Amino acid sequence: MRFEVHPVNPQARIVKLAAAALEDDGLVLYPTESGYAIGCNAESPKAIHKLYALKKPMKKFFMALIIPDIRKATDYARVDNFAFNIMKPRVPGPYTFI
User: Fold this and answer.
1) pLDDT tens, 12-63?
2) Which one in 62, 64, 65, 84 has a CA-CA gap of 20 to 30 Å to 92?
3) 6 and 44, same structural domain?
4) Whole-model pTM?
5) Do 60 and 92 belong to one domain?
């Protein structure tokens, strides 16, 4: 299934369809600052398995995690006060924190 979302005025109906695909363990292709990325629900083992099956040759590489809020990072990683204070003024923004 393919959905095209308007870059300036995203249609709520289409955004809901994409969200439903993620909730149903689907994969989504989305634009980034440097190209396109493939994503899934990070809390779904079934979806993660699909993503790794698709990216099998690149399985040795780490995957990026997109979170809705900087505070959510602590659910997936250890973030001490020093790191948090560096990250906080830079989000939202086109950054990847390792």
Assistant:
1) 999 999 999 999 999 998 888 788 888 899 899 999 999 888 877 666 667 7
2) 62
3) yes
4) 0.70
5) no
